[in-house]
Amino acid sequence: MHAEGMVTRNDVIRNELLLSNLQLAVNVIDNNINILNKQLTTALSLPDELLILPDTTLLASRPHAEDLRYYQSSPSVISPISGWRPRIPRSRKRD
Questions:
Q1: More exposed terminus of the chain, fewer Cβ within 10 Å: N or C?
Q2: How many angstroms separate the CA atoms of 82 and 62, rounded?
Q3: Three-class SS of residue 82?
Q4: Alpha-carbon distance 84 to 79, whole Å?
């Protein structure tokens, strides 16, 4: 498209820079995953070759935004996942 004159050279360079920055971000994320995996396997005394993957089944049961507002407004709600009930300390009235 640059050869036909539909896109300026500046647009091409800007998009190449964007792609380069995105690739760099992917590399940083991959490196962070490898570092965290190494730290976790070391802390748990597991083999270094072991790759720990997250449990993605929780992503399917993500609550909706309106459910979150209900949980935030009601401190006595029981968590549907663990049955845990939050405890909020009550403040005393000052004299």
A1: C
A2: 14
A3: coil
A4: 5
Query: Measured between alpha carbons, how far is 93 from 95 in angstroms, rounded to an integer?
Result: 6
In angstroms, the CA 66 to CA 72 distance is 10
What is the torsional sign of CA 14, 15, 20, 21? positive
Report in angstroms the alpha-carbon separations of 75 from 6, 21, 37, 64. 59, 43, 35, 18
Rg (CA), the chain: 25
Instruction: List pLDDT tens digits, range 29-82.
Output: 999 999 999 999 999 999 988 988 887 777 777 666 666 666 666 655 555 556
Q: What is the pTM of this model?
A: 0.52
